[in-house]
Design brief:
With 288 residues, the chain is an all-alpha fold. It is built from 12 helices and no strands. The mean pLDDT is 81.
Length: 288
């Protein structure tokens, strides 16, 4: 039985990859994302300078062979800061989405599986959070917790929980009356086992798509919080903070905002392309 289950999962994964490969834009997005992850991993080797090293004699230098992306107001190498900033931005994106994914999926599964009373209580709480624009909710949480990488990830993650809760709840409601769920209950399976072994694994397709797109929005939200001073501590190479530092010099020295802005744009674009590809590959209505 276990071998059969593993074989089915392997075949599903193989079919998913076959359908994903047909979407050329999704593959482009995947390649760009893999490249960015490699840059983040090997940032210490790729960076040409110490990202925190200041050289006041070389302020506002334009891009050159010595400084590929130029220097900022403190004479710091922008290329090295953008490279190291990939670590911060990708970490914030993936971990904050992980927080939202775990707690949102759990809340949505419980709301969809149990009684209407439990459903109403949990979903009304989610409705209250959804009534507040996500960026404003993230700002409020970040302002309460203070600056720092951990607080930034928590703020972005909590502000995204309601979306995952609603998606999981809708998926559970459409699944919980299926025959195999009834068979599990009749066989004496506990609610815990039914939810975590049978329901949640079968509801992952829409959650995966939302998570892929959610990483892009999380990076953008984190950049926005850093832009208004509610992100990381000063001096930390984060793309949003770099935009904030360069906005006063955008007319005279546009390279200070151009390169971190391009890094954000390329990352968001790759994740959106990949998210669209996941959606098409996982949608049963589009199976050929």
């Amino acid at each position: 039985m276990e071998k059969t289950t593993k074989k089915r999962r392997f075949l599903r994964l193989k079919e998913f990859w076959r359908r994903l490969k047909k979407n050329k834009l999704a593959i482009v997005g995947l390649c760009i994302l893999c490249f960015l992850v490699l840059v983040a991993i090997f940032a210490d080797f790729i960076a040409t300078h110490d990202y925190a090293e200041q050289d006041l004699l070389n302020q506002y230098k334009l891009p050159s062979k010595d400084h590929y992306f130029g220097t900022d107001k403190f004479g710091r190498d922008i290329f090295s800061r953008v490279v190291h900033g990939s670590r911060i931005s990708l970490t914030v994106g993936f971990i904050s989405v992980g927080i939202a994914l775990v707690f949102g999926s759990l809340i949505g599964a419980i709301a969809g599986y149990f009684s209407a009373r439990v459903d109403n209580i949990l979903m009304r709480l989610m409705d209250i959070l959804l009534a507040i624009p996500q960026i404003l909710l993230a700002i409020a949480i970040s302002a309460s917790l203070g600056t720092g990488l951990t607080n930034l990830m928590i703020a972005v993650g909590i502000s995204s929980i309601p979306q995952y809760a609603r998606i999981m709840r809708a998926a559970v409601l459409s699944l919980k009356d299926q025959q195999f769920i009834e068979a599990t209950k009749a066989a004496g399976g506990s609610n815990f086992r039914t939810i975590f072994v049978h329901i949640i694994p079968n509801c992952l397709a829409p959650i995966i798509v939302q998570a892929t797109l959610g990483v892009a929005f999380a990076i953008l939200t984190a950049a926005g919080l850093s832009f208004i001073g509610l992100g990381l501590d000063p001096g930390v190479p984060e793309w949003g903070a770099m935009l904030s530092e360069g906005r006063d010099y955008i007319r005279d020295f546009p390279h200070m905002t151009l390169f971190p802005g391009l890094a954000i744009m390329i990352t968001i674009l790759s994740l959106n392309l990949l998210g669209d590809g996941f959606r098409d590959a996982l949608d049963p209505k589009l199976r050929d």
